[in-house]
Amino acid sequence: MSAMLESGYCGVRPMTVGDLDAVMAIETAIYDYPWTRGIFRDCLRVGYDCQVYVEDETLLAYSVLSLAVHEAHVLTVCVHPQKQGQGLGRLMMNMMLHKARRAGAETMLLEVRPSNTRAIGLYHSLGFNEVGLRPDYYPAPNGREDALIMARSLHD
Among 53, 111, 138, 145, which one carries the catalytic annotation? Predict the structure, then answer.
């Protein structure tokens, strides 16, 4: 666990390299095809908006957001398996929506597996709509799985 975590702290803060052990523990618990430590390190290095949610010294959620001139792209958002369904995914998504608006983005995009109905429900409840499909985007046990492309306007 990162030495940067303060006792009793609860909230969202920037991800650091010191968080990667905890991030990888969640990533590998959730996904059959997880990102690598190198991918997260590269996201930090290139300046993507990488955030973590920490509660009482325990990292429980994280997100990575790419901000471009008029577009924001959610690269990942993940919540510890024992904390799912308690609003942390919504909290992280709302934080990213706020940051994207402040950065002047007009649209936010993301990809999601069609089999991830729980995430799709969250995204729909936040105003995202399906706008396309990326065939064979994700690795899957029997080959590849498509990705739904979802988007929402940031002009509310």
Answer: 111
